[in-house]
Amino acid sequence: MSPRLIRRLVIVVFITGIAGMIVGSVADNNGVAITFGLITAAAALGLILVTSVAPPGSFSSRPAPHDRPPGSVDERIAADVEARIERLAAAGADETELRQLVQRAIELGRGGSR
Q1: What would the pLDDT profile of 13-24 be if each residue is shown by its tens digit?
Q2: What letters, b where the CB count within 10 A reaches 16 and e where it falls short, cover 37-66?
Q3: pLDDT above 70 covers what percent of the chain?
Q4: Which of 1, 19, 31, 98 has the highest CB neighbour number within 10 Å of its CB?
Q5: Three-state secondary-structure class, residue 108
Q6: Is the pLDDT of residue 68 over 80?
Q7: 3 near 50, Cβ under 8 Å?
Q8: Are 74 and 19 in contact (CB under 8 A)?
């Protein structure tokens, strides 16, 4: 079961619990109000728990661009980078230096350092 689905179910329980507390209070039935209050408190704790343990981006409707499988390459971006390196090298830039710069930029984007 996905974290997103669990979160939605917990939110539904939470909202239902609030409605139950209101109905119990209006009906002057303290037992019903307290029962739904406890259910709402448990749902709030469940919502906090699911949100805290779920990986980043798990509640998004679409995956983030960095959520590709390890080792996969976006061919369009790779082709664009290669074309830019070739254009700069043709304009007189040192190709080896350009490729080292691109490699360092990749390391920086991944959060690594040497």
Answers
A1: 999 999 999 999
A2: bebbeebeebbeebeeeeeeebeeeeeeee
A3: 87
A4: 98
A5: helix
A6: no
A7: yes
A8: no
Distances (CA, A) of 1 to 7, 42, 67, 93: 10, 19, 19, 52
The mean predicted confidence, pLDDT, of the chain is: 85
Residue with tokens 């983030």: 64
The residue behind tokens 């995956």 is 63
In the predicted model, is pLDDT for residue 33 greater than 90? Answer: yes
Give the tens place of pLDDT for each residue, 78-114.
Answer: 888 889 888 888 999 888 898 888 888 888 877 765 5
Tokens of 107: 């390391």
CB 47 within 8 A of CB 7: yes
Q: Kindly tell me the burial class for residue 80, based on how many C-beta atoms sit within 10 Å of its own C-beta (0-12, 13-18, 19 or more).
A: exposed
The CA R_g of the chain, rounded to the nearest whole Å, is 26
Give me the helices (H) in 54-111, please.
75-90, 95-110
CA 16 to chain centroid: 26
